[in-house]
Amino acid sequence: MTNAAGAMLPLSETLADLSEGEVLARIFPRLPSADTELLGPGDDAAVLSAPDGRYVVTTDMMIQGPDFRLAWSSPHDLGWKAAATNLSDVAAMGARPTALVVAIAAPPSTPIGVIEGIADGLRDCCEALAPGCGVVGGDLSASDALTLAVTAFGDLEGRGPVLRSGARPGDVVALAGRLGVAAQGLELLFRLAVDADGIPDAELAAALRARHPEEVAAQLAPVPPIDRGPAAALAGATAMLDVSDGLAIDAGRLAKASGVGIDFDRAALGENVERALGGGEDHGLLATFPAGATLPEGFRALGVVTDAAGTILLDGRPHGQGGWDPYRGWDGSVR
Ligand SMILES: [Mg+2]
Q: In whole angstroms, what is the distance from residue 150 CA to residue 85 CA?
């Protein structure tokens, strides 16, 4: 390999060229520490303070193939999205994210720069969306498919957790964040960033991202409204979850847990109602608030809670609860 001046460059170092200790020494300086950290990386486990006496914990895994394609996502995108999806689940409990632990398995031929890019994405996402949340530990292993597993912790700050099961008939259904934009990005990628054989193509993806930066970034590096989770809890939210698989299917989960129904106002769902109801991965926060409550900044009303248990309605009419399921794929009923 040569640079523009024709000089020989060393081939990039891969994980196989380095020991695990050397890889960790390359990535830990790139990662943010946590405000709650009493003991950081370097011992057998980290030690965190838990001011509330309780803590929220969640985990989410991303695997090359079903969850992402290296032709489309940069290493920075992968680190960002792995952090964002976990932070979103913490926020959906009404908690403030405090710390992440990260496990990465990668082929030995992976350039160290890929792992460094993932670390940079983890850091930048924490700093942007959950300041004070840091990466306090992790693990490295080898596998055929690049895999990121993140576990996140959160502080309830003295409040009770906001569960899926607390919605009551008459509550207002409200959302912070966007609907259908990440799904639009995924549709564009599958339509315009694959070669003639349908294989994801990096150059086509880069060109598409330049033309549709908002939609493609929403899919590859989403910006969920993390600080709106604690804000919703403070405002008296009765139930909440993050919209990961699609508004209709996730609203159905909340309705089922609460033993209620939800009636969405079509006019509140934007121009493309099917995409708003069926598109996943925007990681907005769907919450219910007592009737008449002042919605916290960033939330907008989408409908009302009804007493028709398990029923998702659109302007009073029945609607499917389709969306993304990792084992079934897309349920076409709402697309
Ligand atoms: Mg969730």
A: 9
- pLDDT (tens digit per residue) in 206-238: 999 999 999 999 999 999 999 999 999 999 999
The C-alpha atoms of residue 83 and residue 283 are separated, in whole angstroms, by 12
Are 320 and 249 contacting, i.e. CB atoms less than 8 angstroms apart? no
Q: Would you tell me how many other CB atoms lie within 10 Å of the CB of residue 55? A: 18
Residue 266 per-residue DSSP state: G
Residue 28 and residue 153: Cα distance in Å, rounded?
19
CB under 8 Å to 267, separation ≥6 — which residues? none
Domain boundaries, the chain: 15-155, 164-177+224-334
Distance 162 CA to ligand 1 centre (A): 12
CATH topology of domain 164-177+224-334: Phosphoribosyl-aminoimidazole Synthetase; Chain A, domain 2 (3.90.650)
* Architecture of the CATH domain 15-155: 2-Layer Sandwich (3.30)
In angstroms, the CA 149 to CA 122 distance is 12
pLDDT in tens, 54-110: 999 999 999 999 999 999 999 999 999 999 999 999 999 999 999 999 999 999 999
How is residue 43 written in tokens?
């011992």
Distance 182 CA to ligand 1 centre (A): 16
Centre of ligand 1 to C-alpha 174, Å, is: 16
CA of 61 to the centre of ligand 1 (A): 13
Question: Look-up: residue for tokens 């590859």?
Answer: 220
Question: pTM of this prediction?
Answer: 0.91
- Do 32 and 133 touch, CB atoms closer than 8 A? yes
* 319: nearest Cα among 329, 328, 308, 330: 308
